[in-house]
Amino acid sequence: MSEAVPAAAAVDPLALGDKPVRAREVLRSLKKDPAALASIVVLLALAVIALAAPLLSPHDPLQTFPDIGLGPQGQPLPPGTPGFLLGTDALGRDVLSRLIYGAQVSLVIGIVANGLATAFGVLVGIVAGYFGGVVEAILMRITDVVISFPILLLCTALIAVTTRSTFNVIIVIALIYWTTLARIIRSMVVSLKEREFVVASQTLGLSHRSIMWRHILPHLVPAIIVYTTLGVASSILIESALSFLGIGVPIPQPSWGQMISDGSTYFQIAPWMLFIPGICLILTVMAFNLVGDWLSDMLNSQTPLAR
Amino acid sequence: MSALLEVSDLVVDFPTAADGVFHAVDSVSFTVSAGERVGIVGESGSGKSLTSQALMRLVPEPGTVSSGSVLFEGADVMAFSAKKLQKWRGSQTAMVFQDPMSSLNPLMRIGRQITESLQKHLGLSKAESRTRAIELLQRVGIPDAESRLSDFPGAFSGGMRQRVCIAIATACSPKLIIADEPTTALDVTVQAQVLDLLDHMATELNTGVILISHDLGVISSFCDRILVMYAGRIVEEGTAEQIVGDPQHPYTKALLSSILRLSEPIPRRLKPISGAPPLAGQRASGCSFAPRCALAIDACRTLDPALVPASNASPGQRVACGVAAPAAFELADEVTAA
Amino acid sequence: MSTVLLEVDDLEVTFRRSAGPGRRAASVPAVRGVSFQLEAGTTLGIAGESGSGKSTIARTLMGINKPSGGSMRLNGADVGALRGRELAQYRQTMQMIFQDPYDSLDPRMKVSETLLEAIKLRKNKPASPLNEVYQLLEKVGLSKSFASRRPRELSGGQRQRVSIARALCVDPRLILCDEAVSALDVSVRAQVLNLLKDLQEDLGLAYLFISHDLSTLRFMADYVGIMYLGKIVELGTRDEIFERPQHPYTRALLSAVPEPVVIDRTVRLPRVRLTGEPPSSTNPPTGCSFHPRCPLAQEICRTTAPARRVTSSGQLAACHFAEPELVVAEA
């Protein structure tokens, strides 16, 4: 019976998406957040580059140019050298081409690994939160165990016992990152299932599956979108870290982490080898984070006097 | 009798989704004298809580007080500096809210929460304020007051918390207490106790009280004068006896006849008001109640009736209805013409 | 005598409360030995203050909470013994309407989707489900156009009508109304109460009507039970409870309701004002639970819990002093 006065910006994750988001509102909210707009442009550009890599890259990223790609003492060429816009690396490969193909690797790993992690995390979170009791206890203890491992150490160990492949990197990242989402989703479901409309569908006699699928999952979608976007950034970072440690994407396939790792060796004579992929990585991760923040702000904001 | 609080033509605006402005509170004027109990009754969206928030300058974002004046003992509250406002809120006026739990800090001992304002506003020493806090808790009927000072709010029941809130509100002997649905979250037997307490405090301290409630029963048993609000406006004003015994506005009448009373025979069917209160930003032109009013005439849909003395010549009773008091439309005409 | 639809016998519900900041783990007896019968087509009202266990009874009947003792029989069949599909079918005989109109409908679903989902659960599915939706909407006083709306486009009263329509989807015989009108504005509340009465007459529904609002109960109920701390302390017909209350708690409740009537302020009505507040159900008082607040309490009340017995005026009351002498003595 309270007044129809908007509560002062109370952020209720469950209030997310109780109203459909319209394109007009999205544009309006983007206008207010130029950083997010720029980030979206960056990410779109990145996606285009990754998809059109064969068309865009001037050289084969794996091809070495021992003659024209290296200086007289065999040193890498700096950016601006004719034919090699961003210079070459220690083996005389074109940095720009490797960067472009590296974007492909980073994005694919970031999105696929994180997608798997999301799917699994959401499943675990919903089931644990909805059923509670023993089911919840078992699932959440497993989650706790996974969370309590040091991430990089676990990755290193997991990849050490398997072979080094892109597929394994994806699986390993997914195996680690589902936990965060599982916890978030579980806590949301715990409060969602107490909501009267969920209780009402139970008393009507709907099956558990259709309650979870029709009455719980749709309310989680905005949160899932937000956390997934933020998660892609983490996944890309982890992949870079793994490659940097030499256990990521197999060589000679280009990946940003791999390039940074190589670059750090030649930092003194060829700093661009480190800085160029480094800057790309930072920009991409930052863009994903900014978009994630913007999404959560936008989906959270409620128009005044919504009732 | 000079007025303690004088509110005139108060307007609170909220932006609407369509980039317009919506008067959530619309030209509200009333006065409160020392020791007087004024009740504001209305349904959800009537603007009753916003009115009280506005006169404390606590309108939630993105609302704004766009016009009107609030005079407290002749001083213009709207012109107070931030510092003066704070002092005024703490020592001259006090608010009691619906949810006693959320208006107390759950992580601070009750004693601290009471002594804090005593030290700040009255400049009492630590020991003095402690003694005073015990007195206050005893006055609101909390047994074993001394030992309860060190309890956290969580250790109190709902009614006890509301007593603590009232103790805090009355700590600096304010001249005005604004109680916004203070008993809505409480059980009926506890509600009676809390109302008795408020009544006692008002009498003892000669405090002006504004009681806001959706419950006409609560309002009419507590208040001297009642303001009936509908869709942001005061539609009727009068003493409790006038409002309950001889209501003039069709809304007040309909509201009273849609209420069940234990003291009357059980009706076979209730007489509800058709439709629902208008949603925010969706008010009809003319009288806001016209779409639900059984007596509405054409003029009701175009003219916004002013609050004028009721035609039953009951002193002090005023009504904003052109059908009940034709003068309401005459004044409305002038407003439109101007 | 009409047929008994629902029979609740000695129902006990105990919650386990886990330890939290500043409190220990405890078992909370929310419902302590509640018995009543509900006849087809009639309304039993249950009144009580928050924490009295009145909502727990409804939630236990609906299977949301589990009973820890006693039995619930619906049309003679023991609800506790039913399992799986049989239970689901049986449960549809009972439906529930919740308190919060802003929360009891899935905000993402259109009204038609909400209703269709429920209609699909029926044993014999109607030929045209959408037609059925329109009929249901009409039954609760909403036009066809509401089918395509979403809850946020509806007012509180309209939402509660949709909730009622949803409950009617599975053709129940009994509807549990848990504070179903408490959150509605006064003017709208009256509409919904009239609707509930009309539906009862047209469809022969029985209601278990739970409310803290006594005047609403008096309007709706044929029989009334007054709960205090998990027990029904007084149970009788509407007239018995409202005209000749026997239990001191019932009397206190009735006299605490503020009414919008012209009061002569010089003569204060002799009110039974209770002191104190309902004790916590974690640790109910010994003897009669009400004795710490009871104006009539004697030594026996502190030691012995009163049994429920038939009083001279006809209803059941659990009070050592619920006798006609008491009434005379007080008057």
Automatic annotation (TrEMBL), chain A:
SUPFAM superfamilies: MetI-like (SSF161098). It is found in: Cell membrane. InterPro entries: BP-dependent_transpt_permease, MetI-like, MetI-like_sf, OppC_N. Residues 103-292 form the ABC transmembrane type-1 domain. GO terms for cellular component: plasma membrane. The chain crosses the membrane at residues 35-56, 107-131, 138-161, 167-185, 220-249, 269-291. Keywords: Cell membrane, Membrane, Transmembrane, Transmembrane helix, Transport. It is a multi-pass membrane protein. The keyword Transmembrane helix applies. It holds the Pfam family OppC_N. PROSITE patterns: ABC_TM1. GO terms for biological process: transmembrane transport. Belongs to the binding-protein-dependent transport system permease family. This is ABC transporter permease. It comes from Subtercola vilae.
From TrEMBL, chain B:
Belongs to the ABC transporter superfamily. PANTHER family: DIPEPTIDE TRANSPORT ATP-BINDING PROTEIN DPPD (PTHR43297:SF2), OLIGOPEPTIDE TRANSPORT ATP-BINDING PROTEIN APPD (PTHR43297). InterPro entries: AAA+_ATPase (IPR003593), ABC_Ni/Peptide_Import (IPR050388), ABC_transporter-like_ATP-bd (IPR003439), ABC_transporter-like_CS (IPR017871), Oligopep_ABC_C (IPR013563), P-loop_NTPase (IPR027417). It is found in: Cell membrane. It comes from Subtercola vilae. This is ABC transporter ATP-binding protein. The lineage of its organism: Bacteria, Bacillati, Actinomycetota, Actinomycetes, Micrococcales. One of its GO terms (molecular function) is ATP hydrolysis activity. Keywords: ATP-binding, Cell membrane, Membrane, Nucleotide-binding, Transport. Residues 5-256 form the ABC transporter domain. One of its GO terms (biological process) is peptide transport. It is a peripheral membrane protein. GO terms for cellular component: plasma membrane. CDD domains: ABC_NikE_OppD_transporters. It comes from the Bacteria. Pfam families: ABC_tran (PF00005), oligo_HPY (PF08352).
UniProtKB/TrEMBL annotation, chain C:
The keyword Transmembrane helix does not apply. It comes from the Bacteria. It holds the Pfam family oligo_HPY. GO terms for biological process: peptide transport; transmembrane transport. Residues 6-254 form the ABC transporter domain. SMART domains: AAA (SM00382). The keyword Transport applies. One of its GO terms (molecular function) is ATP hydrolysis activity. Keywords: ATP-binding, Nucleotide-binding, Transport. Belongs to the ABC transporter superfamily. This is ATP-binding cassette domain-containing protein. It comes from Subtercola vilae. The lineage of its organism: Bacteria, Bacillati, Actinomycetota, Actinomycetes, Micrococcales.
